[in-house]
Specification:
By secondary structure, the protein is α+β, with helices and mostly antiparallel strands. Helix content is about 30%, strand content about 15%. It has a 5-stranded mixed sheet, with helices on both faces. The relative contact order is 0.14.
Length: about 190
C-alpha cells in the first residue's frame, strides 16, 4: 500500500479556521488563492525571489510560495485581508495610502505584510545586514532609510515606488512609536 499524498488540514487564517484537503505538495500560496479564494496574496515569481506572496506566519514574514500548506497547520496565518482591525486600516496600510506607497498595487499586499513583520523584528532588536551595533544590549538600531531599504529588500516593486514605500514604512514606525509613547507601550507597530 502506497503512503497517502494528501491530508485534511486546518489552517488558522485571519482569525478564522479553514479545514480542507490538500495534496502534500500544495504551497500555502496556492491554498490561499486557489482553494480559499484569499486572492489578496499575490503570485509573482513563484520561486521566492519577489516577495509578492509575503504573509505573516505566527507574526513573522514568510514567502507563501515556498511554504507548504501542511507545514502551516496549527500556526497563525495573517494575509493582507486580515491586517486591518474592525474596519480600520493598519497603520502601515494607512501610511501606504497617504504616501502613495504603491503604483500598480500588485506588490502592495506583500510589501505591507513584509513591513508589518519587519517593524516587529526591528522592535525586537533583531539586526539587519546594515545594522552597525548588533549587540543585543544595543537594542533596536535607528530606523533609518538605509535600515528600511535593507530590511525590505526581499520585496520587489516593478513600478519603482521604493521612495514612497520607504517613507510609508518610516511613517508607520513613527506613528507606532507615538502611539506607544501615548499608551506607555514598548511595542512599535504590531
Amino acid at each position: 500500500m502506497a503512503p497517502s499524498t494528501s491530508s485534511v488540514i486546518t489552517l488558522h487564517i485571519n482569525g478564522e479556521k479553514f479545514t480542507l484537503p490538500v495534496d502534500h505538495r500544495t504551497t500555502l500560496l496556492d491554498a490561499l488563492r486557489e482553494r480559499l479564494t484569499l486572492t489578496g496574496t499575490k503570485k509573482g515569481c513563484d520561486q521566492g525571489q519577489c516577495g509578492a506572496c509575503t504573509v505573516l506566519l505566527d507574526g513573522r514574514r514568510t514567502l507563501a510560495c515556498l511554504q507548504l500548506a501542511v507545514a502551516a497547520e496549527g500556526r497563525e496565518i495573517t494575509t493582507i485581508e486580515g491586517v486591518a482591525e474592525g474596519g480600520r486600516l493598519h497603520p502601515v496600510q494607512q501610511a501606504f495610502l497617504e504616501l502613495d506607497g504603491y503604483q500598480c498595487g500588485y506588490c502592495t499586499p506583500g510589501q505591507i505584510c513584509s513591513a508589518i513583520g519587519m517593524l516587529r523584528e526591528h522592535a525586537e532588536g533583531l539586526p539587519s545586514a546594515v545594522t552597525d551595533d548588533i549587540r543585543p544590549e544595543a537594542g533596536p538600531p535607528p530606523l533609518t532609510a538605509e535600515e528600511i531599504r535593507e530590511r525590505m529588500s526581499g520585496n520587489l516593486c516593478r513600478c519603482g515606488a521604493y521612495v514612497a514605500i520607504v517613507e510609508a514604512v518610516a511613517r508607520a514606525a513613527a506613528d507606532g512609536e507615538r502611539a506607544g509613547a501615548a499608551t506607555g507601550s514598548e511595542e512599535v507597530v504590531a
